Amino acid sequence: MINKRMTNIEVKKSNRNRIFRYICKHDRVSNPDIAYELNISLPTVTQNTKDLIKEGLVWEEGELQSTGGRRAKALSVIGDSRLAAGLDITKNHISLLLTDMKGTLLHYCRIHHPFRPEDEYYCEVNQRLEQFLEESGADRRKLLGIGISIPGIVDLERNMVAYSHILGIEAVPFTSISQFFSYPCHFLNDANAGAYAEGICSETAERFFYLSLSNTVGGAIFSSRDLVQGKNFRCGEVGHMTIVPEGERCYCGRAGCLDAYCSAKRLSDWTEGKLEHFFELLKEQDPAALERWEQYTTYLAVAINNIHMVLDCDIVLGGYVGSYLEPYIPDIRRKVEKRATFAEDSAYIRSCNYKIEAAALGAAQKVIETFIEQV
Length: 375
Description:
By secondary structure, the protein is an alpha/beta fold. Helices cover 41% and strands 22% of the residues. The chain contains 13 helices and 15 strands. The protein is globular. The two termini are 25 Å apart. The model has no long low-confidence stretch (mean pLDDT 93).
């Protein structure tokens, strides 16, 4: 009897969660729409949406167009019923972002703030966050928490940042960071956060590999609406796979890593740290920029082909460089096709959809999804 009762409770919770998630992912829907798409009885759907309306998460937004009968009530999630902040920590900057239940980017900023492994640093970041929230007009009572993106190995079993070469930290407990903030904190690796933003907002559930081309190179696998973490939370760390044996020195101390050839700094260092200026020169067909781009994309094509040979899935190019790549995808595809063993269309390669602060957005989205799972 107890087991049966528990099963019924679980079924009710699952139905409620699926219904709410469906409303969140669609602009305006009706109870019959939800019942049909999720294969849940109409009375069950109706009761759940009534409860969600009472809780201030969903509202009736007029009526949908008639298909012959009575017009159905249009249901929508109340976007600002809950909010989440995203914080992306890098070696030299922090990015702050505010989003709502719909994943709408409400406010964001990027601030030059070099990392220091000191309590004072986190105090300063918290002050910046509070200032940011004040400027955005965010209702603190609606804030679910902060998603924090970090360039390093984030161990979710031991609740610590296990290692970050770029930040120079090791075995840092989450609590030693979260203690400085007034809101619940959720931690993600930066590439994982970028992949999460790309995947969780997608209409499809197809698996893909997210190649993050920022000031460090990283990667992540997104599958079945979640991240594939790996045994030691290092799944997708392609930045340190060897592209050129005994090649150029990587910041990790070894030679020939992908990071040494395809980080954003490979391009921005040539234009005094301004990546956008490099792409302006490239657009103008500057000969030196074209030559550097040819070298960059040659190594990038090698990496993409290697990743695709192992995983056989779509590859999304993200990070700082990925946000500029849309016009250059056809050329990258041609280079990859020349290296490919199997004759196939390289349409599996695409640029990222989220081009502004994807890591901060993904971290904030993780906070939202954690809340949705508990509804």
